[in-house]
Amino acid sequence: MTYRFRLAIHFGGGYPPFIPDYDEVTDYVKSWSWSIGMGTPYQTYADDSQATFIVNNEDGRFSPENLYGAYAGDLIPQLYVGIYATKGTTTSQIWLGYLDYVEPIAGTYGSNEAMLHCVGIDQILKEKDVRIPLMQNVRAGFIISTILGQIQPPGLGYLGWHLGVAGEGELGIHTTLLDTNFSFYTPQPGQVVFPFVGDNWEDGVSAARAIADVVSAERGRFFINRYGLAEFWARTYLQMRVTVAAEYTELDYKDIVYSYGDDIVNEVTVTCYPRQITASDVILWELAEETTLRPGAEKTISARYSEQDSDTKVSALTLTRPSIAAGTLVYAFKNGSGGLTTADINDGYLTMIIEEEARGAKLRLTNTHSQELVLQTLVLRGRKITAYNKVEVVEVDGLSRSRYGTQALDLNLRLLASESDARDIGIYERVRRSKPRGMVKALALSNHPNLDDEKVERGMGTRIRVIDEKTQHTGDYFIIGEQHRIGRDGQHEVTWTLEPASSSTAWLLGVTGYSHLGINTFLGF
Length: 525
What we know:
Layout: E1 4-9, H1 20-23, E2 29-37, E3 50-56, E4 80-87, E5 90-104, E6 113-119, H2 122-127, E7 129-130, E8 135-139, H3 140-148, E9 185-186, E10 193-197, E11 205-206, H4 207-218, E12 221-224, E13 230-233, H5 236-239, E14 246-248, E15 253-260, E16 267-272, E17 275-277, E18 282-286, E19 291-293, E20 298-304, E21 313-320, E22 329-334, E23 340-342, E24 350-357, E25 360-367, E26 373-387, E27 391-396, H6 398-404, E28 408-412, H7 419-433, E29 438-445, H8 452-457, E30 463-468, E31 473-486, E32 492-500, E33 505-506, E34 521-522
Parallel strand pairs: 9-13, 14-30, 16-28, 33-34
Antiparallel strand pairs: 1-4, 2-3, 2-31, 3-6, 4-5, 5-6, 7-11, 8-10, 12-13, 15-29, 16-27, 17-26, 18-26, 19-26, 20-25, 21-26, 22-23, 22-26, 24-25, 29-32, 30-31, 31-32
């Protein structure tokens, strides 16, 4: 029994379930292509999850501006789009993203087709800037969860309640209050404990850049999975997967990308960023010039911490609230004669709400007095964290470098504060890649019907064995990327991006073949 592939556009908005009669557009699809995961071995942050469909547009239903089309007014960006595979009575989801844009073929003599361009939520992560509070002693999974907590999943806006918008303001009829706790992330905790996070990112760092920094420092993986969810693997995830799910020989694949010796690394430079904390409160920021608030007025001041004449990055471990008593807050009121009356310690007419951020604070000030207020002094004090200039740790395999020349790998890990952690990472990368070896980077499965199940069911993180008689190569690999295509002939073609399973594997207690330390295993990190 073969698979039937199905395409659904979730016109109802929101995170799907699949509703075939309402959403399915399979009969109009002429060709399909989609991909998830990494495009190259050792990649930590995945390529964009994306899909493209060529559809029959003879009746104009895929032309959004065609007022007479079947999908007039409904075919809009950010609708969820899903690919499903049905075999017998079982339907499996194999890709989920959202509609980015529609490209109908224009012109009188153009083909009656359109292209649907779809992407995963990683597109939003690139476009959305986040402001991360200073975090202490946290692992990668928690950091990523905090970052994603500032992202609204695509498509939910079409179900959300919007005040005063016709058709979207009738709560409970066809809209709902957006659930800010909606989760599109499947986390693992991670291994590294980061002492400080957020203090050396630039203001308004993109979510993608922040996550990439976290994953790179962990030496883990981040990608958008088949279910459209962000997925993070700690660095030990693949180390622990020792069971080979299947073997593939020349009878099973029609092409492989094979090379020998081009992934050698024998000189690893790991850049980390040590921090220093002051023992007591110091000045973090102070108001540069007087500012005036009218009666009842509110003003927001963005206080950014910085060192004068330095490119070091500053944040606050603790922040002491400004006060008249401490001399860090001074203001006065304009009196009737044009003079100023300085507020005393008991005055409460200036309210202040402080919103702390990693590298500064937002101060919302309100003058509740009936007279104009002049803010003369405002000082933020606290224990300062300084991220100093980078420190480079270099790990070298001298014998490998002598034999094969310098093969360098540079890792700039902004979240890493410990030279010890940097050295451990350098050793790990050196040990697993210092010797030349044969390597399969990609494998394209053959079109034999016996492999139909493999094409659908095998995916990210699966450990396989490749046996190639022509090159006499045998090796274990992890699938770290998937590229799928169904052409106009209906043939499902699959290419996997592969990464070698370590030739010398991390030590695993009680696992046969992996618990003989120093023989065929080494201590993981």
